[in-house]
């Protein structure tokens, strides 16, 4: 399906959060410091597109935090409350773009697009890819409808769900290792090859957003937001780091297993203890593609699921963590209902019941 923008003017808001697309040389390395206006000024703007800029924050995305992601989520919803806005582009660093985009997609109920983009080469360089990526993102945001949150890089369009950074420095850093891209751009058109499958969107986590806007700073925000950790299994692994996360107050842990989601009997025992203590555990894998599956015992996914871990499907660890975080932020009345909600968020499209019904 080819989407071609008509001549009606489109009003697109660019929300700037930093990243390589806004990074300049500091003398010892690159750091985000260019404003959203500076970034937009480097790019051509598609015909019949009017751009407005919102500078939300300006950080290298390795410094992303839950409170910043909640601020971004709130800013997107506040922007779309204006019916005159046709779409949003978020400029974001590539390190954690996959997490922020997926988190927003889990809460995105509006047919108007939210398009994430950024750069692999810094602001102002002669071979910079930021201007081209921004032009493409504006074109997608001015064209498509009803596809959820998207990621646009190097002429390709990806769904937020499942899309991760697969290359550290190449110009096309993003892909869904277990699925297909959504489409591509070319000759003034957006060619959509598939419609992303998404679960019904979660309600906005109003209580968490209110908490971060009423606290004095990041340290206070961390005290009111759930801690969610990632622990990786490896040869010679023991439960020490997993149990350290529990002791640190984690309300959720993503266990990154080997293969299709495997560990050891000792790890399975630690998972069972954590679940009994009210910690939610999600099982993902360090393998690049494919689903987590209950195949092996002896500490494998069979035992980990029996211990109470919820399988992450094809979500890789970073996005599995965001699903777990979203589940913890959602209002729920019992651990059982929260686990049901987590399974829905992790597995993808809703079959019988909506996420809204599960969440409430």
TrEMBL record:
Catalytic activity: L-asparagine + H2O = L-aspartate + NH4(+)
Annotated Gene3D superfamilies: 3.40.50.40, L-asparaginase, N-terminal domain
Pfam entry (one): Asparaginase_C
Domain Asparaginase/glutaminase C-terminal: residue ranges: 227-339
Enzyme Commission numbers on file: 3.5.1.1
Residue ranges of every copy of the L-asparaginase N-terminal domain listed in the record: 11-197
Active site, renumbered: 20, 94
Record has Hydrolase as a keyword: yes
Family matches, as InterPro entries: AsnASE_II, Asp/glu_Ase-like_sf, Asparaginase/glutaminase-like, Asparaginase/glutaminase_AS1, Asparaginase/glutaminase_AS2, Asparaginase_C, L-asparaginase_C, L-asparaginase_N
Keywords: Hydrolase
Family: Belongs to the asparaginase 1 family.
Name of the protein this chain belongs to: asparaginase
Organism: Streptomyces roseicoloratus
């Amino acid at each position: 399906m080819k989407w071609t923008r008509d001549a009606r003017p489109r009003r697109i808001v660019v929300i700037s959060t930093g990243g390589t697309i806004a990074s300049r040389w500091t003398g010892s390395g690159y750091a985000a410091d260019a404003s959203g206006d500076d970034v937009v000024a480097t790019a051509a703007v598609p015909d019949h597109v009017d751009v407005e800029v919102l500078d939300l924050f300006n950080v290298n995305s390795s410094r992303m935090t839950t409170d910043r992601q909640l601020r971004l989520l709130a800013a997107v919803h506040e922007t779309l409350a204006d019916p005159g806005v046709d779409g949003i582009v978020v400029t974001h660093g590539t390190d954690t773009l996959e997490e922020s985009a997926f988190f927003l997609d889990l809460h995105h109920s509006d047919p108007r697009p939210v398009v994430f983009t950024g750069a692999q080469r810094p602001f102002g360089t002669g071979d910079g890819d930021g201007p081209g990526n921004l032009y493409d993102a504006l074109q997608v945001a001015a064209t498509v409808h009803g596809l959820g949150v998207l990621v646009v890089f190097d002429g390709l369009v990806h769904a937020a769900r499942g899309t991760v950074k697969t290359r550290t420095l190449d110009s096309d850093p993003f892909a869904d290792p277990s699925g297909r891209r959504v489409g591509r751009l070319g000759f003034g058109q957006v060619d959509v090859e598939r419609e992303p499958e998404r679960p019904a969107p979660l309600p906005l986590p109003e209580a968490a957003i209110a908490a971060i806007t009423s606290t004095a700073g990041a340290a206070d925000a961390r005290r009111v937001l759930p801690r969610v950790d990632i622990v990786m299994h490896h040869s010679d692994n023991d439960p020490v780091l997993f149990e350290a996360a529990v002791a640190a107050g984690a309300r959720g842990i993503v266990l990154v297993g080997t293969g299709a989601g495997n560990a050891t009997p000792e790890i399975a025992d630690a998972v069972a203890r954590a679940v009994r203590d009210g910690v939610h555990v999600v099982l993902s894998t360090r393998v690049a593609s494919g689903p987590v599956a209950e195949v092996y015992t002896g500490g494998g996914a069979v035992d980990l699921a029996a211990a109470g871990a919820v399988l992450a499907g094809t979500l890789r660890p970073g996005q599995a963590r965001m699903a777990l975080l979203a589940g913890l932020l959602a209002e729920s009345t019992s651990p059982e209902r929260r686990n049901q909600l987590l399974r829905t968020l992790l597995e993808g499209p809703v079959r019988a019941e909506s996420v809204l019904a599960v969440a409430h």
